User: What shape does this take?
Amino acid sequence: MKVLVINCGSSSLKYQLIDSETEQVLAKGICERIGIDGVLTHKPTGKTPVKLQTAMPTHTTAVSLVLEQLTDKENGVIASLDEIGAVGHRVVHGGEKFASSVVINDEVMAQVEACNDLAPLHNPANIIGINACKELMPNVPMVGVFDTAFHQTMPKEAYMYGLPYEYYEKYGVRRYGFHGTSHSFVSKRTAELLGKKPEELNVIVCHLGNGSSISAVKGGKCVDTSMGLTPLEGVPMGTRSGSIDPAIVEFIANKENMDVHQVLNVLNKKSGVEGVSGVSSDFRDLDNASKEGNERAAIAVKMFSYSVAKYIGAYAAAMNGVDAIAFTAGVGENDGVVRAQICSYLGYLGVVIDDEKVYQRGVEQEVSKPESKVRVMVVPTNEELAIARETVALL
Ligand code: ADP
Assistant: This one.
């Protein structure tokens, strides 16, 4: 079956068409600046990429342009839309309602909408994407794959905050966690690479990208994760602060004459390694600036690594031991400096790193030495493939 995977944001829409039998990507691309002007970058596998600057007033126009490209005589990869057997949608927040992927129907749509409150920047855009696809492909089954679903197995002591209980009951204030599709994919793949069943292993997955989250996966089930009610909690990220003393919000609001919303904007968009370094949110820039002697860039990277190492310690304790640590996503897969820094804190766990492999970029491999008590792995994530697999499995 050919599965179209859609990841819809407020002004962008990423897509991949995947052949579920061969797991090959037939085409992928992104529509950007939807509602502003519109740019479509379409990459058909084995053919020349296409860049189209064309009006995209709505997400429906964007989806319709994508479908045109997929079936285009020259740039296309399928003869007709009938070849698309299903659409898998990434949905950011499934609240407590969705502990796994679901076939989308009216009831599901209403339940996803009910989660909008919890992810006001993401869920409404996901819903728009689903509706656009439904309009243009009314007879194609659609599946929703939630970023939060994998984390729904967390025990209550891991997901409750130390707040008045009524906030949990009335508003659903609790830890949900994100990047679940990636944590699930990578923890399973780690087990596969180690020749074990997921049930046999305690794995800590470090999804380190622009947004970063760590998860503790015990016997294949998530028991804790670093992101919370929103993706702001956890380690400091590209531009997000991660966890801070909550009293800082009022303190800065008073000092800088800002309201809560403005402070939250700073915590989301002007903090993290960019805020500390004053250089960039991109770890390539930070590594280069550090090499050139920029102290703030160096401390930003070290702060990030230290924070990840602390979560690894916490999760080793939460699971009463850890068998494998997996690095994934943009930074985790590519940044050897960060990996080596993080592992430098892990000697007490018996981690022994291979000093060459740990610096190799983007290779799926073990980067610890045979004598290491904990296996340290680099495992590239593939959220689109995970969504396509979920979609096929459900249908
Ligand atoms: P997201 O999906 O959260 O937007 P990604 O997982 O794509 O993010 O990760 C983006 C991050 O990966 C950026 O900070 C980028 O600098 C980092 N990255 C990509 N390639 C490298 C590299 N070669 N070395 C260091 N960092 C890298």
